[in-house]
Specification:
Elements lengths: L9 H12 L3 H14 L4 E7 L5 E6 L6 H6 L27 H7 L2 E7 L6 E7 L2 E8 L4 E7 L6 H5 L4 H18 L4 E6 L2 E6 L8 H12 L7 E7 L4 E7 L11 E5 L2 E3 L2 H10 L12 E6 L5 E2 L10 E2 L2 H18 L36 H5 L2 H4 L12 H5 L2 H4 L5 H4 L1 H4 L3 E4 L3 E6 L2 E6 H14 L8 E11 L2 H16 L3 E4 L4 E8 L7 H18 L4 H13 L9 H12 L14 E5 H7 L4
Parallel strand pairs: 1-7, 11-13
Antiparallel strand pairs: 1-2, 2-6, 3-4, 3-6, 4-5, 7-8, 9-10, 10-13, 11-12, 14-15, 16-17, 17-18, 18-22, 19-21, 20-21
Helix pairs in contact: 1-4, 2-6, 6-17, 8-9, 16-19, 16-20, 18-19
């Protein structure tokens, strides 16, 4: 039998390795920015074209490279960070595996220009398909300029898997935000298609709490200015610094949760749970607190070489880290009178953390007529969604609910909506009533989500009334959220939100749907973005479908909301007028129906 095992050509091996390290333009951006940080740069300029598909260029004022190093940096496993096995467990720099530039060069056209301060001239190298095309002397400023053009040009299958420009830009902004947040003393600039998205000024080399707060606000938005609580605890074993958000800074996604270990961004569901636990008494289960936390510990106590992207690490004493993070967050919240009395019965290494026993006072509930349930169940709140017709007379024929639910059998039963049976509510979650020897139990949130979803779905057929703002409002967003709004402008208008781009990350609110209370325009839009990101993270639906689900989930009444009898009747009436009343848009049940025989069976009666 002939031999069948062969060594892969270097070009193919590099392309395979690139699949692990460089998955999309954002992956290349991360590696290039981290190399600039490792080079000691104090100013870094990221230039993009076509969301990085056409061009990714990073210009830094770091220490630059010699002619030999400029050539060697594109070889696989070539690194200045590791010389022996002990170095692997004491790494504090960002890049160290020696695969990033080799992987990028294998799937793009690359040009590098670099000069050290001691040299009068620099070096220029061009690489295509992993092969050096030229290396020559050039005039260039001190530092390095790395250009990556036509990413995945030679791997068309990989390029075809890239998403829309707005999606790829959101991933790039995420990576840029993490690196810029971890280095608040460094100046960063992000330019996309010749327009600046970020311009963050360089500051002194000393990192301060004030400087970090300014960087967080610059990256995540001015809305956080009064919602940040300082976290600062230190022991001989571990130090933690940063900020956590007040309860009103919480969101429906984890998009504003940042952990840095020894200044490296990491993803850790374990530590996220530790922070979430500190908010357990002041946040609902479906809300995620905002935080930016820096953990500093001996690098020999962690292993960062467990994933190609280096965003997952292992802790030597993970339970101690968990307890420390949880207690430090509780301590910070208690100092600002945000949490109730807290028990700090934890590991001895953090016994010095003390909680202040100051209870949290929730805001009073608004009057019933101000809440959304009342607004959505009035003719004023609904007139712009549905045509005014006498639908009840033709209800059976139009909706054929008996085929799905087996509840409508004759005209007498159809009229139960008009007869208004006695309703009851269970745990402020379920609406119940009895009719024609059946008991109906309806999940009020799922039911209202179905009602609203079908109304928004009909928005293109029935114009939604737009309430013009007496004074147009200026709405400033962070770069990531601005990308989302730009992507959704057309769909937002069809649903009653009239927005106008005003340059940069700023928009003018010209009008909103008639059911948005005056003064709540920006709040409503911010909630839409939050829910939209949640819908994006959960599924793969198109953007309009995600927006419809976002609006329905945002405005639906919540489980736990007490309803009066009229509101229960109105909700049931509207649910049974839906085309698909038995499930919400996620396939979750809206109701359970028990016949008298089924109820007898539960009691073992025949």
């Amino acid at each position: 039998m002939p031999d069948i095992i062969n060594l892969l050509p270097n070009t193919l091996a590099n392309q395979i390795a690139a699949g692990e390290v460089i998955q999309r333009p954002a992956s290349a951006v991360k590696e290039m920015l981290e190399n600039a940080i490792d080079a000691g740069a104090t100013n870094i300029h990221l230039i993009l074209k076509d969301a990085g598909k056409q061009l990714i260029q990073v210009i830094d004022n770091g220490k630059g490279m010699s002619d030999t190093d400029a050539r060697m940096c594109f070889e696989r496993h070539a690194t200045s960070k590791i010389k022996n096995i002990d170095d692997l467990f004491n790494v504090r720099t960002m890049g160290f595996r020696g695969e990033a530039l080799a992987s990028i060069a294998a799937v793009a056209r690359v040009e590098l220009k670099s000069r050290q301060e001691k040299d009068e001239a620099g070096t220029s190298i061009t690489i295509e398909n992993g092969q050096v095309q030229s290396q020559e002397v050039c005039q260039t400023p001190v530092g390095t300029s790395l250009s990556v053009k036509n990413l995945f040009y030679n791997v068309p299958a990989r390029r075809n898997f890239l998403k829309t420009n707005s999606t790829e830009m959101r991933h790039i902004v995420d990576e840029f935000t993490r690196v810029a947040m971890a280095n608040p003393e460094t100046g960063f600039r992000l330019t996309h298609n010749e327009s600046d998205l970020f311009h963050l000024e360089e500051s002194s080399n000393t990192v301060s709490r004030k400087k970090l707060k300014q960087r967080i606000i610059a990256l995540l938005g001015n809305s956080l200015n009064d919602k940040l609580v300082a976290v600062s605890e230190e022991t001989d074993f571990i130090q933690i610094n940063g900020f956590c958000g007040t309860p009103d800074a919480a969101t429906k996604t984890r998009g504003q949760q940042f952990f840095f270990v020894n200044n490296r961004f990491i993803k850790s569901a374990y530590l996220n749970h530790a922070v979430k636990g500190a908010y357990s008494q002041i946040l609902s289960k479906d809300a995620y607190p905002m935080f930016v936390l820096f953990i500093d510990t001996d690098p020999s106590r962690i292993d960062i070489n467990v994933h190609p992207t280096k965003q997952e690490i292992k802790f030597e004493e993970d339970k101690i880290i968990y307890a420390f993070v949880n207690s430090a967050t509780k301590h910070a919240l208690s100092k600002f009178s945000i949490t109730p009395s807290i028990d700090f019965n934890v590991d001895a290494s953090i016994e010095n953390l003390q909680a202040l026993n100051q209870p949290f006072s929730a805001e009073k509930q608004k009057a019933t007529k101000d809440d959304f349930l009342y607004q959505s169940f009035t003719q004023k709140g609904q007139a712009h969604f549905l045509p005014k017709t006498n639908e009840r007379q033709e209800w059976k024929e139009r909706y054929a609910i008996q085929d799905q639910l087996d509840v409508v059998t004759d005209e007498e039963e159809v009229s139960f909506i008009e007869k208004k049976p006695n309703y009851f509510q269970v745990n402020n979650v379920y609406v119940g009533f009895a009719q024609s020897e059946k008991v109906y139990l309806i999940h009020q949130q799922n039911a209202h989500e179905r009602v609203l979803y079908e109304r928004y779905e009909q928005a293109q057929e029935h114009n939604i009334a737009i309430q013009k703002c007496l004074v147009p409002q200026t709405w400033e967003l962070n770069a990531g959220d601005a990308i989302i709004i730009n992507e959704l402008m057309e769909e937002m208008l069809s649903l009653g939100f009239e927005l106008e781009a005003f340059g940069g990350n700023t928009f003018i609110i010209q009008g909103v749907p008639a059911d948005v209370p005056s003064g709540q325009e920006i709040t409503a839009l911010e909630e839409i973005i939050d829910h939209y990101k949640f819908a994006t993270a959960k599924g793969k639906h198109g953007k309009r479908e995600r927006l419809l689900r976002t609006l329905a989930r945002q405005k639906a009444i919540r489980a736990g909301k007490k309803l009066n009898e009229d509101e229960m009747h109105e909700l049931v009436q509207q649910l049974f007028a839906c085309q698909f009343p038995t499930e919400n848009f996620d396939g979750e049940k809206t109701m359970i129906v028990l016949s008298s025989s089924e109820i007898d069976g539960l009691f073992h009666k025949k």
